[in-house]
Amino acid sequence: MAEEEEAEVHTIEFERGESDPKTITLPAEGGTQTLSTGDTIINFYTGEVFLADGTEESISRSLQSIGKDYLRSITIYADKEYVIQLDDFGKHTVKTSEAYAATRQKFQIATITVAETTKIRIIASTDPDMKIDMPQPVVMGGTLKGSKFNEAVAAETDIFSDVLTPTYPATVFRIYACFDGSGDLSVRRAYGGTTITEKLNAGANLSANCGYAFDVLVLENQTINLRYSAAATALALIVSEVV
Q1: Beta strands 48-50 and 100-102, pairing class
Q2: Confidence check: pLDDT of 15 > 50
């Protein structure tokens, strides 16, 4: 009787998301980066950015600075069509109406080719499964976070019933404000159980019936609200997230 062969056992290991992922964004402070026609090469390992016009820039955070060898995922939003290539892998054309997301990759360099001046936002991570889903894919118009039109607001009281939460890890809230009475406008920023007050317009009063615009940087896990120092009517108050 022939001896039975012992069955070979194969162990399959499933890759898990990183417990403490690091994120690199371009630009680092939120908003968008303007790319000129041609190839822009972003070396995430060294932090060098080689622009199409022949100039060089650097990003404040690199793989070297965070002690990592590779990025594992990337999400890109742009207002024009572009071609993306990670390291020496294949090129992918992304249409204007699309958002590009790649997960479970291993790369250090991204080359982006545009045929016309393009505004772009890049979020890359050491987490192999990072994916940011946006309610709208393009960066130009922004996403409305809160608004008031010809509504009364109480003095030194949160203007919005719900706090305003960012969609991106690091983003900019653009605030347009016009009140019928003079007063100072403040941001109430909450993070980790602590809330602080930040006065806009250098603490000076806003003039009645005059429009003002402010950009406020908001980070992941932070929320904001607004307060006005005097009882007034918010003739127009708009808060939008611009990436």
Answers
A1: unpaired
A2: no
